[in-house]
């Protein structure tokens, strides 16, 4: 069973601070996605990283995929109250069963981020 | 462009009942996956369908079943509901079964 450990589970910071969320696994993933989820809504895709060592930037958010494609991090610079939400990492695994393949996402437990004004 | 849509948004059932949840993928996407998200946890993989066939299944009992229609929409069925089935049920669509998945808003199921 693929496991993805996400930390920290909770993060409460003041506006303007920086933060980093980590996702670690002992397994290799074909790609890794980061999602943000608001209460009662579905996860919204932020980014997909595919290549080991890849770094992607989305405004104040920086995503990195580990060289071995087993871990990832999300760094937010100068956090704002609008960044408040649940952040989820999800590792994509291509599995094979009954002569066919399918793509399964294994999610971390999530990080609940609260940014205070 | 319309994203993934799911219906109903909320549902209340009692133990032992049956429920059907519906999902329409993004236009052009041929694969639909279903996930269960219990409060305070990340989503757990239930099924993936591609071209109307089940391609993958997670660790869920046989009470859970699904199907995909010729227009690529999908239904998730759960029989003999248990209290523990209360969760947010998420549908995700992708172009093909191994591509990035985009999630719908979910159906909140409460079993009393």
Give your account of this protein's structure.
The complex is a heterodimer of chains A (117) and B (112). Helix content of chain A is 0%, strand content 59%. By secondary structure, chain A is an all-beta fold. Chain A has one domain (5-116): Immunoglobulin-like. In chain A, the strands form two sheets. In chain A, strands 2, 4, 5, 9, 10 and 11 form a six-stranded mixed β-sheet that branches. Chain A has a five-stranded antiparallel β-sheet with strand order 1-3-8-7-6, with no helix packed on it. The model of chain A has no long low-confidence stretch (mean pLDDT 92). With 112 residues, chain B is mostly beta strands. Chain B has a single domain, classed as Immunoglobulin-like. In chain B, 0% of the residues lie in helices and 51% in strands. Chain B contains no helices and eleven strands. Chain B has strands spanning 5-7, 10-13, 19-24, 31-37, 44-50, 53-57, 64-68, 74-78, 87-94, 102-103, 107-111. In chain B, strands 2, 4, 5, 6, 9, 10 and 11 form a seven-stranded mixed β-sheet that branches. In chain B, strands 1-3-8-7 form a four-stranded antiparallel β-sheet, with no helix packed on it. The model of chain B has no long low-confidence stretch (mean pLDDT 94). The chains are: A mainly beta (117), B mainly beta (112).
What is the compact description of this entry?
Chain A is mostly beta strands. Chain A is 0% helix and 59% strand.
Low-pLDDT stretches of chain A are: none
The counted number of beta strands of chain B is: 11
Largest interface: pair, residues per side: A-B, 30 and 32 residues
Gap between N and C termini of chain B: 37 Å
Biggest pleated sheet of chain A: 6 strands, mixed
CATH fourth-tier homologous superfamily of chain B: Immunoglobulins
Mean of all residue-level pLDDT scores of chain A: 92
CATH topology of chain A: Immunoglobulin-like
Q: Work out the number of β strands of chain A.
A: 11
- Low-pLDDT parts of chain B are none
């Amino acid at each position: 069973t693929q496991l993805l450990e996400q930390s920290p589970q909770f993060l409460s910071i003041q506006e303007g601070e920086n933060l980093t969320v980590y996702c670690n696994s002992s397994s290799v993933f074909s790609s890794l996605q980061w999602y943000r989820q608001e209460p009662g809504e579905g996860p919204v895709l932020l980014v997909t990283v595919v290549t080991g060592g890849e770094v992607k930037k989305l405004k104040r958010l920086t995503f990195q995929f580990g060289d071995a494609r087993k871990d990832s991090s999300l760094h937010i610079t100068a956090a704002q109250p609008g960044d408040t939400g649940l952040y989820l990492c999800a590792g994509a695994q291509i599995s094979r069963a009954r002569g066919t393949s399918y793509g399964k996402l294994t999610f971390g437990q999530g990080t609940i981020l609260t940014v205070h004004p | 462009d319309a994203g993934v849509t799911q219906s109903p948004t909320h549902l209340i059932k009692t133990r032992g009942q049956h429920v059907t949840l519906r999902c329409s993928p993004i236009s052009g996407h041929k694969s639909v996956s279903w996930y269960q998200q219990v409060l305070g946890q990340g989503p757990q993989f239930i099924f993936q369908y591609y071209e109307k066939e089940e391609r993958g299944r997670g660790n869920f009992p046989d009470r859970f079943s699904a199907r995909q229609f010729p227009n690529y929409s999908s239904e998730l069925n759960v029989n003999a509901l248990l209290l523990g089935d209360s969760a947010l049920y998420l549908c995700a669509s992708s172009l093909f079964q191994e591509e990035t998945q985009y999630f719908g808003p979910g159906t909140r199921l409460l079993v009393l």
